[in-house]
Amino acid sequence: xxxxxxxxxxxxxxxxxxxxxxxxxxxxxxxxxxxxxxxxxxxxxxxxxxxxxxxxxxxxxxxxxxxxxxxxxxxxxxxxxxxxxxxxxxxxxxxxxxxxxxxxxxxxxxxxxxxxxxxxxxxxxxxxxxxxxxxxxxxxxxxxxxxxxxxxxxxxxxxxxxxxxxxxxxxxxxxxxxxxxxxxxxxxxxxxxxxxxxxxxxxxxxxxxxxxxxxxxxxxxxxxxxxxxxxxxxxxxxxxxxxxxxxxxxxxxxxxxxxxxxxxxxxxxxxxxxxxxxxxxxxxxxxxxxxxxxxxxxxxxxxxxxxxxxxxxxxxxxxxxxxxxxxxxx
Length: 330
Ligand code: SER
Known about the structure:
Elements: E1 15-19, H1 24-35, E2 39-44, E3 61-63, H2 69-79, E4 83-86, H3 92-97, H4 99-119, E5 124-130, H5 153-172, E6 175-181, E7 183-185, H6 197-208, E8 210-213, E9 223-225, H7 226-238, E10 248-250, H8 258-268, E11 273-276, H9 280-288, H10 296-302, H11 310-329
Parallel strand pairs: 1-2, 1-4, 2-3, 4-5, 5-6, 6-10, 7-9, 8-11
Helix pairs in contact: 1-7, 2-4, 4-5, 6-8, 6-11, 8-11
The structure holds serine.
């Protein structure tokens, strides 16, 4: 196990470009990178969200469609980032509504980012992969190296991204690193994901007092609180390359049933009424994902360990959401 002190001690200030910056991970990642003193550039197909909560901190924002290789090349040639965090993607549920677009954005996007990074000698590319790379019938908890047979276009393109990154690493020496995120729970809402029932339980119970989840109560998939997810990406980026035995890592935190999440919310938000009405399409996706991930390689190679379990997450998140909802209401 690697000690924190063994991680890159020199913590240089890096110039960092984040794609998909307006998304659920991007917004929190940008805050985390700025807190560490980096020079961060946001980019997204959409304009900068108003509620980034950055105070006075500077955040250059570039309108960028990752399917446009020429635009990516121009941006990278002009800004010369040291590191790119490639987050831009269409998530699993929305992806099934338009598989062609999902292929172009997710598969084309990761190819374009890798290709432009190789051409312009970007030092490192971080990639957000997912539990959706897995299909049914795998061991529980599921280790890193298993037969990957995803059932969604989102999952297929994320497997493609992992493999392309590995190829660019072997063929061109590009420093590509990826984590497979569990479903992520945060104050920032996701859009179009199948694990969205979990963050929505918190937000909707607090906003309206009730939420009808689109899954069965016994649905169990790996989940993680966003601060752990952001720390995982940043710590993987900071890990010495020679400690890493692979390019893509499972990371795990906890694996509650949907009912266990609902109970935790109900304990923290008196009067919250959470009910369940399974939607067949999204339920089938959830049932194809593993119950739990084995993250032993991440723990050994770069000292990964989660800090939050379900109860600690609820204790931390509910007051934050309460404050946010108060601000939005005023
Ligand atoms: N949270 C994602 C989704 O539900 C999984 O990576 O699509």
